[in-house]
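Thread: sanity check for a docking pose with coenzyme A

Original post by kr_44:
Hi all, I'm comparing my docking run against an independent structure prediction. Below are the sequence and the ligand SMILES. Could someone generate the full complex and paste the structure tokens? I mainly care about where the ligand ends up relative to the chain.
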Amino acid sequence: MYNVILGTGSAAPDNVVTNHDLEKIMDTNDEWIVQRTGIKSRHIALPGEKFSDFAVPAAQQALARSGLVAADLDMILAGTMTPDQLMPSGACTVQALLGADKATAMDICAACSGFIYGLSIADKYLKCDPSLNILVIGGEIVSHHLDWDDRTTAVLFGDAVGAAVVGARETGHRLLAVETGSNGNLGDLLYIEGTGSKTPVTKDFDIDNNYIKMRGREIFKHAIKNMVEVSNRALASAGKTVDQVTKIIPHQANMRIIEMLAKQFKKPMDEVFVNIDRYGNTSAGTIPVALNEAANSDFLEPGDLVLMTVFGGGLTWAAAVIEW
Ligand SMILES: CC(C)(COP(=O)(O)OP(=O)(O)OC[C@H]1O[C@@H](n2cnc3c(N)ncnc32)[C@H](O)[C@@H]1OP(=O)(O)O)[C@@H](O)C(=O)NCCC(=O)NCCS
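Reply from moderator J.T.:
Ran it for you. Here is the predicted complex with coenzyme A included:
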């Protein structure tokens, strides 16, 4: 028996905001955004839309493709920093809406790395109990934490959620290794100050504390370094070398980061999955949404050795190796 990806799904708000739309509300332009980031448009939730509105359909697609129903789920892990409410967890909200009555549900707060962190936990649970069916979700409604007056962050992010069901089977898309890492000493490079116990919501709450703050250039350097390191670690624990990798599904934070990663691994760009142009950075959503689109297009072919790698606030980073 191997731990395998049984099925994937994803969903995003219908509302699409282009770079040209952003030009009308802030001092930016399509040329700058495309050249510096590769982003052309992103999905942005409308007022009232929340995490579960997209996590539930993503999960339902993943379940249908797995040949399972919600009642078969033993565990739901949601990598998100933007659940519907602080309590209950996003995973518990999704559990109730799916009707996954026997599942244990919890959130994983690892910013962009949340989905692969979830895969890592699922992988280890399955090694202890191969009978489990585990739903791993990753994604955000990150737009609620964007300051539309801050062009250095607002143009970069978007909303979307992806999901995968994992279980132990004799055949399937085999999860060979998952590795993770973090460095809390670098937490101040990318953060949201408010609504935690340090800066709680009071009647004097400064709305600026609700917004993402980022030191982009420094993040850029750490992103490359740590994604390369954790990818090499995941490949070593899978018993594979980078030469054997045939497809890469990287975090979709910046096209230049994706291209530098491909260069480091000496891979042509047609072996690297890219959808940043249509989504922007959806934080914990980038990897499962990209995996779902790659799996349901002709990008992934049977026998591919797939490397997925991610990086985010915390700082956190992670990589997974899948034999497709
Ligand atoms: C944020 C990021 C795109 C900025 O790109 P950059 O090439 O480093 O650009 P800089 O921050 O040096 O800014 C260059 C200039 O563009 C300007 N600029 C910044 N945002 C702009 C925007 N949206 N539109 C137009 N100009 C902009 C800056 O003000 C600066 O102007 P100046 O030279 O007159 O001071 C890039 O650093 C990045 O992607 N970093 C990693 C971020 C990331 O991955 N975050 C998520 C991790 S999960």
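Residues 2-172 form a domain with the Peroxisomal Thiolase; Chain A, domain 1 fold (CATH 3.40.47.10). Hope that helps with the comparison, let us know if your pose agrees.
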